């Protein structure tokens, strides 16, 4: 092993590959849809010792290859162990005002932690203080869905379809926590759906997330109507810290966010003037796994509950979520994951498996997952053929675009 500054490991190259992996069906949300597939940019960071670390980033249906290529001048020659220096090289908080690189930094951090773990022969969770749990519990992430274009199957629009799909997920994966992604149909109809879930699965826990599409008035009305339900929390019900601070005066359900507290300035503001009760930590939005661990420690100090958020993932980012979940003592809620909507993955061995609603934390060196080169090639070719998609548009609603608060809801009857 090299020792000393001159003999430190160095990054020699960064290679980014955009892939698109099919979903069971298009997933609708308040701001648009995932159009039947995820578009993800896979990042490989090469070193002079032959160790290659892997990372992953989304991008709202678009490729991030060019953005990563632009970082080569920052990265080549850098010691992957020097992660704090890397943070300021790539995402200096003042310089980043002109080119927000937080999510790019996250993917590079994933790869550097993967390199360090492989270099030391230890899993990433050991670099973060050691694991406290061997598996992480997940919620079933329920979306209203359009039919699959090829098969015509997979639609979730009616109450019956939602209940049947939830029952199938429950039987298949063992979920006992269910999150309904809303903001698609009128709040009155989504309230009917949510209460139907509560009645169908009275022993399970629930959470509702309309992506801040509701007006404050609708959020109050919805929240009061579900106070009696076995709720985990009310996620991003209305827009902004002040809007949710007002909401807390009227609704006796914990308010959660992955949108309005995603950096340390916002976390400090929320602690000084509470608006959010549960902080949802996202390894991409916060700029990596390590910032999430730091944020979780701040939340532990101030007795703020946390959960692990999903921004849409393949197996690489899922591994970052698992290593994060493994080390957090104050993780009391099930994590989110889009993962069960995927038909395939780009890691060797295929998709990671759920058991009793949980996924086991990888124990191999680094992130503990390895790229399947054939799958990467297959889905890179699929991306070249299909291209990207506009995340903030709904393929079922021509000329529609989202407003906040929204008043132009999709029609649940058709």
TrEMBL record:
SMART domains: MR_MLE. Keywords: Metal-binding. Its EC number is 4.2.1.40. Pathway: Carbohydrate acid metabolism; D-glucarate degradation; 2,5-dioxopentanoate from D-glucarate: step 1/2. Pfam families: MR_MLE_C (PF13378), MR_MLE_N (PF02746). GO terms for molecular function: glucarate dehydratase activity; metal ion binding. It catalyses: D-glucarate = 5-dehydro-4-deoxy-D-glucarate + H2O. Residues 159-254 form the Mandelate racemase/muconate lactonizing enzyme C-terminal domain. SUPFAM superfamilies: Enolase C-terminal domain-like, Enolase N-terminal domain-like. PANTHER family: D-GALACTONATE DEHYDRATASE-RELATED (PTHR48080), GLUCARATE DEHYDRATASE (PTHR48080:SF4). This is glucarate dehydratase. The lineage of its organism: Bacteria, Bacillati, Bacillota, Bacilli, Bacillales.
């Amino acid at each position: 092993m090299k020792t000393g500054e001159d003999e430190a490991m160095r990054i020699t190259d960064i290679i980014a590959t955009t892939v698109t992996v099919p979903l069971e069906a298009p997933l609708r949300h308040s701001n648009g849809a995932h159009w039947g597939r995820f578009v993800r940019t896979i990042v490989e960071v090469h070193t002079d010792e032959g160790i290659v670390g892997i990372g992953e980033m989304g991008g709202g249906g678009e490729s991030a290859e060019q953005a990563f290529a632009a970082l080569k001048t920052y990265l080549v020659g850098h010691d992957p162990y020097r992660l704090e220096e890397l943070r300021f090289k790539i995402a200096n908080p003042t310089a980043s005002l002109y080119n927000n690189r937080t999510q790019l930094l996250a993917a590079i951090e994933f790869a550097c932690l993967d390199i360090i773990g492989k270099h030391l022969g230890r899993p990433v969770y050991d670099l973060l203080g050691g694991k406290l749990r061997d598996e992480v519990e997940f919620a079933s992430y329920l979306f209203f869905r359009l039919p699959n274009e090829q098969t015509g199957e997979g639609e979730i629009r009616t109450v019956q379809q939602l209940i049947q799909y939830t029952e199938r997920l429950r039987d298949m994966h063992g979920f006992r926590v269910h999150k309904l992604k809303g903001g698609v149909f009128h709040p009155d109809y989504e309230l009917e759906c949510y209460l139907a879930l509560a009645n169908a699965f009275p022993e399970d826990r629930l959470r509702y997330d309309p992506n801040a599409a509701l007006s404050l008035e609708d959020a109050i009305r919805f929240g009061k109507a579900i106070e009696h339900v076995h709720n985990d929390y009310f996620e991003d019900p209305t827009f902004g810290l002040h809007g949710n601070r007002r909401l807390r005066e009227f609704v006796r359900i914990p308010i959660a966010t992955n949108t309005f507290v995603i950096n340390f300035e916002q976390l400090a503001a929320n602690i000084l003037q509470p608006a959010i009760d549960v902080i949802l930590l996202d390894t991409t939005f916060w700029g990596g796994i390590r910032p999430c661990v730091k944020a979780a420690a701040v939340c532990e100090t101030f007795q703020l509950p946390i959960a692990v958020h999903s921004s849409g993932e393949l197996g690489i980012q899922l591994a970052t979520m698992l290593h994060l979940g493994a080390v957090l003592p104050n993780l009391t809620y099930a994590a989110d994951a889009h993962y069960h909507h995927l038909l395939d993955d780009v890691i060797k061995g295929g998709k990671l498996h759920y058991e009793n609603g949980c996924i086991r934390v990888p124990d191999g060196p680094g992130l503990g997952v390895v790229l399947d080169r054939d799958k990467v090639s297959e889905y890179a070719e699929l991306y070249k053929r299909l291209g990207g998609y506009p995340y903030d548009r709904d393929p079922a609603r021509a000329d529609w675009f989202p407003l906040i608060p929204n008043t132009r809801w999709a029609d649940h009857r058709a």
